[in-house]
Amino acid sequence: MAKEKIGVLVMAYGTPASLDDVEAYYTHIRRGNPPTPERLQELVDRYQAIGGLSPLLEITRAQVDNLEKRLNEKSPHEFVAYMGMKHAAPFIEDAIKRMAEDGIKQAIGIVLAPHYSMMSVGTYHKTAKEAAETYGIELLSLVKDYHLDPDFIQALVNRVEEVLQRFPGKAKEQVKVLFTAHSLPEKILEMKDPYPQQLRETAEVIAQRVGLKHWETGWQSAGQTAVPWLGPDILERMVSLQKEGVKQVLICPIGFVSDHLEVLYDIDIECQKLAKELEIHLERTASLNADPLYIECLSNVILQELAKT
User: Fold this and answer.
1) Which of 16, 97, 181, 286 has minimal Cβ neighbours within 10 Å of its Cβ?
2) Is the pLDDT of residue 2 over 80?
3) Of 288, 140, 125, whose CA–CA distance to 202 is shortest?
4) Where does Fe(2+) bind (predicted)?
């Protein structure tokens, strides 16, 4: 008798497929409000600065394919993984519709973001639940977070230790390490949202494992809205660090698992430009992308969630 297939809904933020799609992409992010011509040009310029397009779509496809393969190696169940994006095709709704068309009745979901916030991962979950109801898919479980998964932590420890070797002297004692994540509106603090604390927990475990003396968590890539966002922004913090006499900085963007605009532009171009002006030696850890340890992490937490059902 054939095993019943379980769908795996792998959710990510999304990215424009071409420069022509940038306006539609940001209009979707802004809930139907298109960016101003000036803001649109600024965004297009950023994509052109990193080579014309973000590699996020290609990376997410690799993550999904590798995850499906690893799950089927480890489990007696038969898994079929689907990619669903929040703000670009294929949308989360598209992925669940495809599941239904493929005859899948049950699915489990995970967001490619390790730290939970009601305003980030929570919104993916809401979209997935609504689409699953529409298309008759039973969502067995949705992974909430995995910010302390041992394989996730190990992958980041490996990267921090590797990059520390690029600094002279006793890097663990001298380099300031900034563990960063995407900023969110400050109102999450009033909501007792776990996001800032989970970020701190991830950073603390990595710092202990590596033996770092000087580290902190920080924020980057805040949205341009009227409401205040968590700060200070990483650029502001670099200026204050330079005034404090810091000459060596390592950025480890633990809130981001893939190369995309917020890493390739905000850190590699914007932060590096400021670092040169401040005469700071700045390095960044490589993104996890499709690292086997990260794929192992994802497969672990999905199977753990499935076992609870």
Assistant:
1) 286
2) no
3) 288
4) 182, 262
